Amino acid sequence: MHAYELLLKLQNHEIELKTQKNKSKIDDLNSEIILLKAQLPTEIVTRFYRLFKRYENALVRANGGVCNGCFLNLPSSQAAVMNKCSDISTCQHCGRFIYYDTEKANAIF
Ligand SMILES: [Zn+2]
User: Fold this and answer.
1) How far is the CA of 3 from the CAs of 15, 33, 59, 94, in angstroms?
2) Which of the residue ranges 35-39, 49-53, 86-90 would you say has the lowest mean pLDDT?
């Protein structure tokens, strides 16, 4: 599984936790979150939570070379500015994590 897929799951779980009232579902989400965090590099997790406090979507998809968080154009050199986690990048405008849909990556660049 790609790192961005893990991070996306983590984000979806955290978003669901904000509104989830069912105790056993909350427990399930929390234990899945622990598992997801364990599979991601610590610096990615730490940064994610810092961003998540500020933005509702800390991880967004790059949409045709545009950040889906701030809707500004990403430099075409962005592909080269990847994190250690090769499939997660950072928007230089808003700092959000961005990922490229690998199946469509060829169409974007
Ligand atoms: Zn952005």
Assistant:
1) 18, 14, 11, 20
2) 86-90
